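Weekly structure sync, notes
Attendees: PL (lead), two postdocs, one rotation student
Agenda item 3: pending single-chain targets
PL asked that the sequence for the first pending target be pasted directly into the notes so everyone works from the same version. It is reproduced below exactly as submitted, 200 residues in total.
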Amino acid sequence: MRKMLFILYSVFSCVYASQIITVKFNSTEIPVKLMVKGKVVESLKWQDKTGTHFIIITEDSSNEYCSKGYKSALYARQYTRSDSFSVNWSIQDFGTNDCEKAHYLDSSLLIIDIDNDSIAETRFIYELAHDCCDPVVVKYMLHYKENKIAIRGKVPMSEESKKDYQKNMDPLFEKYPKSIKSFASKDWDTFVKKHYEYQE
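Predicted structure, written out during the meeting:
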């Protein structure tokens, strides 16, 4: 059911911006010294007017989930290839306790051209998942011209915690075209409604 919702969600998102053609690629294309650690959970490759680009998202953990000493990490990195590879940006985040997992949300990596300038923006979403009914921390990561802009929030997992819903727009949105903030805000709302089946 969630996979179908993601497909519908991605189609909806593309109404607002030009979609960029992407392809999956083998992570062995990236030099080992530039790779981030962990298991690859998503990888996409595309071209725009600035060159050929790659994104790899990985997850890494130690010990059993919810056991003493459990640690969880999520890494994401974008590369550009010309004569050699260069790193455009890099993100890492970690679970904060034995029962919190930094978890990439399947199929949430989207390569788009929001302002139609032939330079792609990237968006992906992950959560700090847990094993209880408390609101889940959700992080929406958008890169505009290699600049990270985020929406950080909490989504209730039960009717009783509905009042704890949060959606915090990064102040950095104000530095960029209004179309970027507008897209991200609507994109977040659509995602939360479809993925978590959340209604305000």
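Discussion points:
- Residues 2-195 form one domain.
- The chain has one domain: 2-195.
Action: rotation student to compare against the earlier draft before next sync.
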